[in-house]
Structures are given as C-alpha cells and as structure tokens.
Write a structure and sequence with these properties.
five-stranded mixed β-barrel, alpha/beta, 2 domains, OB fold (Dihydrolipoamide Acetyltransferase, E2P)
C-alpha cells in the first residue's frame, strides 16, 4: 500500500501544477480578449465628426469606412419617398456652402429636417459613388429656437 500512495501523491502534485498553468493561461486569454474588445470599440466609436470639406478632400481614403459628417442641410435638395422610406438630401460645409455632400438615409423623415438653417450630424459609410449611406441622422437644434427674452417682454407689455 505504501507504494500506491506514493504514486498517487505524485499524480496529485502534478495535477495541481497543471491546474495552475491552465488557470494562468485562461486568465491571460481572458485579459487579451477584453483588451482587444476595448481597443476595437474605441477605434470605431471614438471618431470625431468631420466637416463636408474634409470628407471631399479625403474621399478616396474614406470609401467604405465608418465616419461622422457635420453639415448644414440644403432644404431644396430633400426628396423623400414615404412608401420605401428613402430620404435623400445634400449637406453643405458651414464654412464653404459650395462644398456639398449627398446623403442617403433609409428611415422615417425627421420633422425638423425641412426647416431652413438646420444642421445635422450623419453617421454612416461613404460609398464609392460619393454618397454617404447614413445609419444615424442627428439633427442639431438651430439657435433661432432659443427664446429672445426682449421680444417676450415687449409682447407681454402689449
């Protein structure tokens, strides 16, 4: 019996060493996976938005890449097909209104898009045809929606 217990003792210590190695390897794999997920999500979501002029200047390098574009909506260019939910319009660079970028969005048309002076941030991908296929359409609230307290006071006095 003494011999069999010695054999079992050797097997038990070897098993403990194997468990430690497996635990360390498993921990390293989990840490590496978490680090990869953090880095990949930061690189995708951490992008700032670009102006229309920047997108037009870098058009060849931005094709099929995720981007955010800021611009003023050109209300005359808006076309919307309610049956297919296709919204097409152009945005202009706030600094240079001559620079324009075409946008295609599939979804419900926002109510405020037809107001003059509306700005938007578009998230999507730039196609090879130069049209941004928008995933998200975020409208900025124009400054004219801010109340002018002097006008309110005058109307209240009347």
């Amino acid at each position: 019996m003494a011999e069999s217990s010695t054999i079992l003792r050797g097997a038990v210590t070897t098993s403990k060493a194997n468990n430690r190695v497996k635990f360390i390897i498993g921990g390293v794999v989990i840490v590496a996976l978490i680090a990869y997920l953090i880095v990949s999500s930061i690189s995708n979501a951490g992008a700032y938005y670009r102006e229309v002029g920047e997108v037009l200047a870098q058009q060849a390098t931005l094709v099929d890449k995720n981007l955010r574009v800021n611009g003023d909506i050109i209300t005359e260019s808006i076309t919307y097909d309610a049956a297919t939910l296709d919204l097409n319009f152009k945005i202009a660079d706030p600094a240079d209104p001559g620079k324009q970028l075409a946008i295609h969005f599939h979804g419900v048309q926002p109510d405020q898009i037809t107001r003059e002076g509306t700005s938007a941030i578009i998230e999507g991908t730039l196609g090879p045809n130069g049209v941004v296929e928008a995933n998200n359409l975020l409208l900025k609230c124009p400054s004219r929606y801010e109340e002018n307290y002097d006008e309110i006071k005058v109307e209240a006095i009347k």
